[in-house]
Amino acid sequence: MTEPSMQAPTTGVDDILAANDGYRLRVRVLNEQGLHARPAARLSQEAQKFGCSIHLRHDGEAVDAKSILDILTMAAGHGSELELHADGPDALEALRHLRALFHNRFR
């Protein structure tokens, strides 16, 4: 009888993971024009509804997800993979909400 493999589960895009300092979520930009002005504005507006801190990371750069200007500086195009990090009392709820926003292409 052989031992079952003890590999760590793989995590992919759209999985919310607990971290020592809050929660993390990887998402992919699905809309054709990327995070241009309208989706960046929508993302920052939706993030501002939560009391937790929310940061967005792309290509090693982390910005405040509540700031439209910060989001625009990332120049995240179609297909870009981003990581959201939330820390605070409503962090999990915030990431669930923002995940749906990415899935619905900011509509």
Automatic annotation (TrEMBL):
<dbReference type="InterPro" id="IPR035895">
    <property type="entry name" value="HPr-like_sf"/>
</dbReference>
<dbReference type="Pfam" id="PF00381">
    <property type="entry name" value="PTS-HPr"/>
</dbReference>
<comment type="similarity">
    <text>Belongs to the HPr family.</text>
</comment>
<protein>
    <submittedName>
        <fullName>HPr family phosphocarrier protein</fullName>
    </submittedName>
</protein>
<keyword id="KW-0598">Phosphotransferase system</keyword>
<dbReference type="GO" id="GO:0009401">
    <property type="term" value="P:phosphoenolpyruvate-dependent sugar phosphotransferase system"/>
</dbReference>
<dbReference type="InterPro" id="IPR000032">
    <property type="entry name" value="HPr-like"/>
</dbReference>
<keyword id="KW-0963">Cytoplasm</keyword>
<dbReference type="InterPro" id="IPR050399">
    <property type="entry name" value="HPr"/>
</dbReference>
<dbReference type="GO" id="GO:0005737">
    <property type="term" value="C:cytoplasm"/>
</dbReference>
<dbReference type="InterPro" id="IPR002114">
    <property type="entry name" value="PTS_HPr_Ser_P_site"/>
</dbReference>
<feature type="domain" description="HPr">
    <location>
        <begin position="22"/>
        <end position="107"/>
    </location>
</feature>
<dbReference type="InterPro" id="IPR001020">
    <property type="entry name" value="PTS_HPr_His_P_site"/>
</dbReference>
